[in-house]
Fold this protein.
Amino acid sequence: MLVYETIELPEVVPEGREVASDAFRIRMSHDGAVIGFGAKSVWWDYDEDRAVAEDERDPENNVQYVLDVVGSNKLVEVASPVKPSDIKTHVQPYVLKLRKHLKKTNPDRVAAFKDSVQSFLTETVLADRKSFSIFNAQTDGEPNKFPIFVCWSPSGEWEGTEAVVFMLRDGLNEIKC
């Protein structure tokens, strides 16, 4: 099994945290800079921190119908639909920190990362911005700056999937379990 965990970036992502695994349908895009996970809607019990069947929902608990990845990671929607100003506010600070991190840890990767992320943001997210939302994960109840993109009406190779969750792969560690 493969688990994907955020890398730690001070002031952006304070700690590594598991965000997905290969239990989801996975596709790489934009020269491997972007990883997509197929997602489905579930009833998520935030009090018990787990997916529940519709007939198991406890009316006393905070239960919502959300994407499995959104519920399991306690994601907070910060922009929908995505506008260029949202990219500047919610994505650019993270991308700049990640690029700085890559300059130290993998300098040969920086140019390809920059080009691939730019392509993803302009040709995928902003080109179809009405279908995209940006979420942030929470750390200690506060949203952190790790951007997670959700496409609500996937097409092409993702057709038949309720939604696709995209993350910048350079911001993730791949751990074999």
